[in-house]
Each structure stands twice: as C-alpha cells, then as structure tokens.
Amino acid sequence: MTIRLLVVEDDYDFRNILQASIQTSNEIKNTQYVCDTAGSVDEAKDLISSQKYRLIISDLKMPNDGDGLKLLNHLNDIGFDGKFIAMTGMHDENTARQLLKMGAANILYKPFSIQALIQTLPEYLEEKPKNNLQDIDLRTLIQLINIEKKTITINVYVRGHNGKLFFVKGELIHAEYEDLKGKEACEIILNTSSNKEFSFTKEISAKKTINMPLMNLLLLISKDNDEKNKENKEKKNKETQNKKTNVNIDKLKGAMETLKKDMGEALITSDITMIKEGQILISHNPDPKLCALTTLMIQQIIETVNKTKDFKLGNKIILRLEDNKSIITLFYGDYLWSMMVDKDKIQIGLVLNAIIPDTLKNLEIAVNA
C-alpha cells in the first residue's frame, strides 16, 4: 500500500531532511510513504490540485506567498478530507486556538523530534469515522474545551483504570489517575494512546493542583516526552547496534579522541553514523543538519555506484567546500565517519597520508572488536 504525504516548508535543507526521513521509515508494515514537498503555499496548492494527500505537514511562516493558516483555509474551502499538521517556532496561544478551530490535527513546535513525528504517523493516517466522539484524539478534545472555555470533568478509562481531568473555564486545574495527582496524572492519561474511552460530567469537586495555562502544560509534557523518547531511542539503538555488529562504543570514543588530538583546531565537526539507520553513534561538535545531509548524500552515491559494474567505490569521499574547507567521509561496512576540516589550520597532505589511514584503521578495529 502506498500513502502520499505533503511537506510544505520554505527551508530547503529541513524540507529535504524531513522528506527523506519520512520516505525511509517503516512505521506501518507493508506500507510505502511517498512524500512530496513544496517550498511555498502556491506550490502546495498546485500539488494538492493534482494529487490526493492523506496528510499535509506545513510550516506556518513562509515569507513569499502566505502562511500555513492561508493554506489550511484553502484546504477547508476545497473540502480536503485528510489531516493537517502545523509546524512553527512561535509559541502563540491565539494562533494555536485558531489552528485547532480550523481543524488542524496537531501543532509541532520547532525544534521537534522528527523520529517522534514519524512514530505517530500511523495515528494520523489511520482512517476512522469522523462522527464518533470516541475517535477524537484526547489532546485535541481538551484543546477544544480550552478554546470554548468549558467547565467540565472528563472521566477517562485507560486500560481498566479510571482517570479524571477537571476543567474550569477551559483551564485544566486538576488531574487524577490511580494514586497520582496533578501534572504526573495528566501526563499518564495523555500518553496512553490505546484502549482509551471517556465520558463527561459537569460537576467539579477538586482542589487546584495544576497552576499553569493548559497550552504551557501540553508543551511541557511534549518536551518531557521528547526527552524520554530520545533517551529510550538512544538506549535501544545502542543495544540493537551492539547486538547486530558487536561494535565497541568505547573504542569508537577512543578513536574520536585520537582524531581530535591529531587534527587539533582544524577539526570543525565530526560524526560516526550507521548508514542504514542514520543513527549518530559518536560525535564532536555535532551539526545534525550537516550530518543528515552528508549521510543522505553518501547513501545516494553508494546506491548509484552499486547499480553500475563500471565503478567501485574506495573507502573515502572528499568534498571541497568554499573558504578552504573540506568534508571527508570514510566508510567501513555499515558505518560512516564524516568530518569537516579547515585546511588553513593543517597540512592536507598530513591529513590524507597519515591521519586518515590511522582513523580508518581505528574504525575497523572498533567495528570488528
């Protein structure tokens, strides 16, 4: 099955990173994501007129021809029946309310975890009846209660346990889940995404334990979730990588320290990455955007060269940049080691003839340890 998505973002690099990450994900088995991109609202409208999208992820602020709100308004006018997710670096409550009123499924505040977004894609792409209250996402529901300034209690039934969310004039004042109260209870209720049902009562019998605006609370919980997901992902990836390859992380760290010592101030940034997963194992002065672009570029080069029998790649690729800088990428097995070097601060002959061979040897030792 093929599912088509659209990313609307004026930042060329971020747009392409997001596209590549979505298209290479496998969150839904036997499903291929086709992700189109647009750099402006007008370009997005042209694509929407000729393609059917299940999900559109759009930046809010685009300087050329409008913004995400204009695009969402257009989608409503033409009867778009997919989902819309907004991306923004501005934490503006009025804009958030306007988006939700207009039907946005979610708002992502930059910087956000691309991996966390990808993991939730099945949630947004699952086809559900639109006339059943139980099919409304709980986060969307409580934001609607906030917008309408309702005084109400939501009784939430989560995996056989009862929870409660108490609202007064649209603000969440208290939450309960088993023995937990306040923010901790709210976090558990919101983060349990399956086997969830809810009902409503108008009686409020709770003391105030949550003392921040609802939108701020949701942002705080999302931030905590991103940090936990990042920690869990790093732990899981490390365990998986060690299991699959027996790579010695300590030796990789030692190899990076040796490179830093040999290069000195000439080493601007460096990352050791798994090619297929795109996962950074070890880094020095990390530049995530540069790392993602380099990994994507090397993957495409390897794939292209492998399709022809006329050429065979060596173990390094060198890109010469402006300002007398170079990106040197070494690869061994499933691993890439990329580094940006300032050639004004080191003799390039020393780098190519001594430091790089030693670095490749250290990478091989760590992988085969």
Classification by helices and strands: alpha+beta
The N- to C-terminal Cα distance equals 41 Å
Any idea of the CATH topology of the largest domain?
Rossmann fold
Strand content: 25-35%
CATH architecture of the largest domain: 3-Layer(aba) Sandwich
Shape: globular
Rounded average pLDDT: 82
- List SSEs in N-to-C order: EHEHEEEHEHEHHEEEEHEHHEEHEEEH
Radius of gyration: 24 Å
Task: Give the strand order, joined by hyphens, for the main sheet.
Answer: 2-1-3-6-7
Keywords:
17 strands, 3 domains, Beta-Lactamase, 5-stranded antiparallel sheet
Describe the 3D structure.
It is a single chain. This protein has eleven helices and 17 strands. It has a five-stranded parallel beta sheet with strand order 2-1-3-6-7, sandwiched between helices. About 2% of the residues have low confidence. By secondary structure, the protein is of the alpha+beta class. α1 packs across α10 and α9 packs antiparallel against α11. The protein has three domains: 126 residues, Response regulator (Rossmann fold, 3-Layer(aba) Sandwich); 88 residues, no CATH class; 123 residues, 2-Layer Sandwich (Beta-Lactamase). The two termini are 41 Å apart. The longest helix is centred in the middle third of the chain and has 32 residues.
